[in-house]
Amino acid sequence: MNRWMASMFTALSLGAFAQAAPIEGEVRKVDKPGGKITLKHGEIKSLDLPPMNLAFQVKDAAMLDRVKVGDKVSFTAEKINGAYTITSINTR
Fold first, then answer.
1. DSSP helix/strand/coil, 91
2. Residue 47 pLDDT > 70, yes or no?
3. In this structure, are strands 52-58 and 83-91 parallel, antiparallel, or unpaired?
4. Is 44 helix (H, G, I), strand (E, B) or coil?
5. Which pLDDT does position 4 carry in this prediction?
6. CATH assignment at residue 64
7. Which of 47, 48, 54, 70 has the greatest count of CB atoms below 10 A from its CB?
8. How many other CB atoms are there within 10 angstroms of residue 22's CB atom?
9. Distance (Å, whole) CA 46 – CA 6
10. Overall number of domains in the chain
11. Measured in whole angstroms, how far is the alpha carbon of residue 43 from the centre of its chain?
12. What mean pLDDT is predicted for residues 64-86?
């Protein structure tokens, strides 16, 4: 593998790792028909988002059955097809 390929591999690996870091938040709204969850969260550097309340899509609708308004959660999120999307969520 040449140096350029090694650099690209490292950059891609670090980017994937940064997206996988859990984010702390609080559930503000659960919209099962819309497949969305609104979370109050701190800064999400990997998505260039400041602290705010934000409605996220969920990768799997079953995630919405595991949370309720007021729950403190840890989650991971990515931008998928232009939408901020929760890829995993767990109550704390």
1. strand
2. yes
3. parallel
4. strand
5. 47
6. 2.40.50.320
7. 54
8. 14
9. 22
10. 1
11. 12
12. 97
Which domain does 45 fall in, by range? Answer: 3-91
Give the global pTM. 0.78
From residue 72, give the alpha-carbon distance in Å to each of 2, 12, 14.
46, 31, 27
3-state secondary structure 72-84: EEEEEEEEECCEE
Q: Which helix (H) or strand (E) holds 5?
A: helix 3-20
List residues bridging with 91 in a β-sheet.
73
What average pLDDT score do residues 3-19 get?
A: 48
3-12 core/surface letters (b: 16 or more CB in 10 A; e: else): eeeeeeeeee
What is the C-alpha to C-alpha distance for residues 79 and 88, in angstroms, rounded to an integer? Answer: 13
One-character DSSP codes across 15-35: HHHHHHS-EEEEEEEEETTTT
How many CA atoms within 13 Å lie on the side-chain side of 85? 12
Cα-Cα-Cα-Cα dihedral sign, residues 42, 13, 6, 81: negative
